């Protein structure tokens, strides 16, 4: 076909328009695809940002509940702290550092700056025992180390709730000798260390607690005598006196025990504000609905309502017989708000028919415990009567030797007393006023089951100061803390086991 110039021009224009239209179409298709991709990317980006926000928010919430972080935040706000470059110590007279864990009231002492672990010590003396024989001031291999890390049914560590989930089981404890006076003690240099789950505070840690105040007003001064980890010499171990001052005693002496542990950095707070009436509660140890739970599944130190009138508060000791629950009155018996005193008997051997045994298995059951409570008590419990002399192991109160190869002399009765060195055989109130030495009259010496000498004339008593003394069984008078075993079918109906909300029981 032949085109003239005019036809050629028209054809050229048409082809050009077609090409332009095709290009525009491709551009429109490409633009739509780009916008779709861009929109999808935009949505994806928003989703990523929202997820990141939620994740960060959740992580922030978790971190805010971590025990060590809460404690550090609190002390930075109040200024009650001392940082020596290794640990940040909580200081002051009564900071909000109370923690309720495994049936016991603790104080947070310090946070390790690197590991973020939190060191605790019990507020009160959980028991009392000799540190070691005379002239043996070493913590490693001592009676004290044994008592603290005993995982048997009688032991402190063995009665802590799920301890492997809460505490550092390979913590390093510095037991280096130091005879320096309070106020001048330097951080121990690690000359003598021991690796254990449970230990004691050393004297430097105690001193570090009262920066900005005095030892008499320190929150760690509980108005009682208690052991520290620090040897004073080759013959003495340092302890803290009832007025908060530093002291030293032969390791054969029987002082109060305040166990210390290190909580893992992952431990969280789930309730409480750190005050004595509302201590911090830890995740995994804050049961809220225990109705129908067997009491035999609960933990040493938890409180129960048991008995009448002013003598109606008791605490779990252990599950020594394997099925039931051993309990003890939270404080010695009172009559009209005054401690009731009694002789032990003509000799130091307890039985259901000696002076104190007759009272416990007669008048006590009739007047201090009504029939509904009495029905919960096992009819017969074995009470171990081994003799523990000065500087001997607490194990001899129950066993024939420290290898626990056989049981000591024993007797059967419905109601008895605690042994020397047994859990809860301590003091749980101040003997001396804070910042002074005058008596509070809140504590009193009370009898244990454990004879102090082979002639059975003297019996070990827990003194009002939280250490042990021995009293003449026939001549001296001391207070009485009844102990008994509740049956295996006793259940909880109410309460959470704290002092302010004790367990209510039924059978």
Mean pLDDT across the residues is 89
Please give the alpha-carbon distance between the first and last residues: 116 Å
The largest pleated sheet is described as:
8 strands, mixed
Which overall shape is indicated by the principal axes computed on the Cα atoms?
globular
Binned, the helix content reads 10-25%
Which residues form runs of ≥5 with pLDDT under 50?
1-19, 22-62
Descriptive report:
This protein folds into 3 domains: 7-65; 68-263, no CATH class; 287-506, no CATH class. It is built from 8 helices and 31 strands. The model is unreliable at 1-19 and 22-62 (pLDDT under 50). The protein is an alpha+beta fold.
Draw up the topology in text.
Blueprint: H1 5-65, H2 67-78, E1 81-83, E2 87-90, E3 98-101, E4 104-112, E5 118-122, E6 127-130, H3 143-148, H4 163-166, E7 171-174, E8 193-196, H5 203-208, E9 226-231, E10 237-240, E11 246-249, E12 254-257, E13 260-263, E14 269-271, E15 280-282, E16 303-305, E17 313-318, E18 325-329, E19 334-335, E20 338-339, E21 341-342, H6 355-360, H7 363-368, H8 371-374, E22 381-384, E23 410-413, E24 415-416, E25 446-451, E26 458-462, E27 468-472, E28 478-479, E29 483-486, E30 491-494, E31 504-506
Parallel strand pairs: 3-15
Antiparallel strand pairs: 1-2, 2-4, 3-4, 4-5, 5-13, 6-12, 7-8, 9-10, 10-11, 14-15, 16-17, 17-18, 18-29, 19-20, 21-28, 22-23, 24-29, 25-26, 26-27, 30-31
């Amino acid at each position: 076909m032949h085109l003239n110039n005019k036809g050629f021009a028209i054809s050229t224009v048409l082809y050009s328009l077609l090409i332009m239209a095709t290009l525009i179409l491709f551009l429109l298709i490409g633009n739509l695809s780009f916008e779709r991709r861009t929109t999808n990317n935009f949505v994806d980006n928003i989703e990523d940002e929202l997820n990141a926000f939620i994740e960060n928010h959740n992580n922030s919430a978790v971190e805010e509940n971590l025990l060590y972080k809460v404690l550090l935040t609190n002390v930075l706000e109040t200024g009650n702290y001392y940082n020596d470059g290794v640990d940040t110590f909580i200081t002051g007279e009564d900071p909000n550092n109370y923690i309720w864990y495994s049936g016991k009231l603790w104080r947070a002492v310090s946070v390790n700056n690197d590991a973020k672990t939190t060191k605790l010590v019990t507020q009160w003396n959980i028991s009392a025992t000799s540190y070691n024989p005379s002239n043996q001031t070493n913590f490693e291999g001592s009676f004290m180390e044994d008592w603290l890390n005993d995982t048997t049914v009688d032991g402190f560590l063995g009665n802590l709730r799920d301890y492997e989930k809460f505490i550092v089981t390979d913590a390093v404890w510095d037991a280096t000798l130091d005879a320096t006076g309070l106020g001048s003690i330097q951080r121990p240099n690690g000359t003598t260390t021991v690796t254990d789950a449970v230990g004691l505070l050393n004297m430097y840690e105690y001193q570090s607690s009262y920066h900005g105040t005095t030892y008499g007003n320190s929150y760690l001064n509980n108005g009682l005598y208690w052991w520290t980890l620090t040897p004073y010499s080759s013959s003495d171990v340092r302890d803290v006196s009832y007025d908060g001052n530093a002291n030293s005693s032969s390791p054969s002496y029987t002082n109060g025990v305040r166990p210390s542990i290190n909580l893992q950095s992952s431990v969280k707070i789930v309730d409480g504000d750190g005050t004595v009436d509302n201590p911090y509660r830890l995740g995994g140890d804050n049961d809220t609905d225990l109705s129908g739970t067997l009491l035999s599944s609960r933990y040493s130190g938890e409180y129960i309502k048991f008995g009448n009138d002013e003598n109606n508060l008791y605490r779990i000791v252990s599950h020594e017989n394997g099925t039931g629950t051993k309990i003890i009155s939270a404080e010695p018996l009172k009559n009209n708000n005054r401690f009731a005193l009694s002789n032990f008997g003509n000799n130091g051997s307890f039985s259901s028919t000696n002076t104190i045994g007759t009272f416990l298995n007669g008048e006590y059951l009739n007047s201090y415990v009504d029939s509904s409570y009495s029905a919960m008590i096992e009819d017969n419990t074995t009470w171990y009567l081994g003799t523990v002399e000065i500087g001997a192991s607490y194990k001899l109160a129950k066993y024939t030797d420290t290898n626990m190869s056989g049981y000591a002399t024993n007797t059967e009765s419905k109601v008895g007393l605690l042994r020397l060195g047994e859990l809860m055989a301590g003091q749980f109130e101040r003997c001396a006023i804070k910042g002074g030495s005058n008596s509070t009259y809140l504590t009193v010496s009370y009898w244990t089951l454990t004879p102090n000498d082979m002639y059975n004339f003297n019996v070990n008593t827990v003194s009002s100061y939280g250490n042990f003394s021995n009293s003449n069984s026939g001549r001296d008078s001391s207070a009485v803390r009844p102990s008994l075993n509740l049956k295996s079918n006793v259940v909880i109906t109410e309460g959470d086991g704290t002092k302010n909300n004790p367990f209510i029981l039924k059978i």
